[in-house]
Amino acid sequence: MFGVLRKKPVDKLVEVLGKKKVNISLVERKLYSYDATPIPLQRAMPSAVVFPESHEDVVRLVEVCYEEEVPIFPRGAGSGLTGGAVPTLEKGIVVSFERMNRFQVDVDNATAEVEPGVITAEFQEYVESLGLFYPPDPSSFKYSTIGGNIAENAGGPRCLKYGVTREYVLGLTAVIKEGKVIKTGNPVIKDVAGYDLTKLFVGSEGTLGLITSATLKLIPKPRARATALALFNRLEDVGRAVTKIFTSGIFPSALEFMDEDAIRAVEDFKPVGLPKVKALLLIEVDGSPSSVKEDISRVEELLRSMGVEVRTASSKEEEEKLWSARKSLGPALGNLKSGKINEDIVIPRIYLSEAIPKFREIAKKYDLLMVIFGHIGDGNLHVNLLYDKANREEEERAERAVDEVFELSLKYKGSITGEHGVGLTKKKFLKWQFGEAGYELLRGIKLLFDPKNLFNPGKVVEV
Ligand SMILES: Cc1cc2nc3c(=O)[nH]c(=O)nc-3n(C[C@H](O)[C@H](O)[C@H](O)COP(=O)(O)OP(=O)(O)OC[C@H]3O[C@@H](n4cnc5c(N)ncnc54)[C@H](O)[C@@H]3O)c2cc1C
Fold first, then answer.
1. pLDDT, tens digit, for every residue of 280-332?
2. Structural domain range at position 403
3. Are 419 and 439 contacting, i.e. CB atoms less than 8 angstroms apart?
4. 330 CA closest ligand 1 atom index
């Protein structure tokens, strides 16, 4: 007796979804096995790249994968920096949400129903044309997707005042184990029924299931904005200035910090005329035209009373030039050294002036170039350790230094990540942050949604 030949899982996927949605070409599989993480990762070529076009497609593909025990690696635009979208098992498939890119805005309710593959900037531009505002602004907003932003709980400079992605997700539709569908939340601000599954799903990095739709909260678009640049000759004054602004009744919409090496890197890469100082702050305020005028003058006054030089952008072009300096920092660092470990630690603002020199001591101990910049208003700093990719010994020193950067952040009651998530690269450190009992709970939650460990296996928590 001959046994019946079993259909391969990929053939089953083709059968339920159709050929056009399942790509098995070598080129495509290779292309979709990377994300933007700048360090080498454990990665595998997936057996197929699947492009669902609807919620129903996602249900069908999860049903097949759960039955056939095929690992699923969800993907937005692949701009993640911790390997979240990278496939790590050859029998797995990548699920790219790029064809699920529709959205609908309810202007009267100030909410929107958004598919995961919508590009964040395109959504923001559209809602702003209606007088509404979706604030989360990761620097990757021009190409990253709403699904990826939700899965990473992304944030950016404006999150100081407006909060991170999680604050804007009112509800989700997601496909979990065996193709089951969960609907969480509602298009309302107040909803306290049961455990908050929406908030649990946001930031879960594709490990609990696949998001097929999100209900997003929109707020009124601020009518005006202004930006000031503050120049510091002493690092210690930066923390004092931030406190002074915060206790003066002004809530800046962004408060960005660059140290002297970051300033030098930008000026060497794309000069905007920043002077040689120990540190600078970019301060943005928004609101009504009259409140903006008043707030920015007050900021100038406060800083000048501390002996700090302040310049205010007098035109839209000047403002854009200042922000382009901050936004070109990533590529500018690539000019200094070929390799970069960019960590996004957070510590309470009050400890920043004490902690920044300690981060510098770590760099000195390992004889490395360290550049620090970031969102000082919320204590979220990008600590960059630079090394030469051809020099393995220097790279190893950078890896050892990173351990100490995280240790120090946790000592100051902070977190190992404020923006980029855990993914593959920070798994080890998550245990440090959560402790044994907390980590066990994370594992339990993961297995409740995904008992076969098929959703983004190997990311965030070890099962
Ligand atoms: C130049 C640059 C600047 C950046 N700046 C910032 C910043 O300022 N702030 C910040 O927070 N981050 C920043 N990031 C990192 C950030 O994580 C991403 O840019 C963004 O949030 C990821 O979106 P994406 O669409 O590219 O998702 P991907 O990278 O493709 O995926 C990210 C994670 O989401 C999961 N995922 C994607 N879609 C779904 C879905 N539908 N269901 C379930 N899981 C899903 C993936 O499995 C993965 O774990 C930056 C990245 C780059 C390259």
1. 999 999 999 999 999 999 999 999 999 999 999 888 888 888 888 888 888 88
2. 337-450
3. no
4. 1
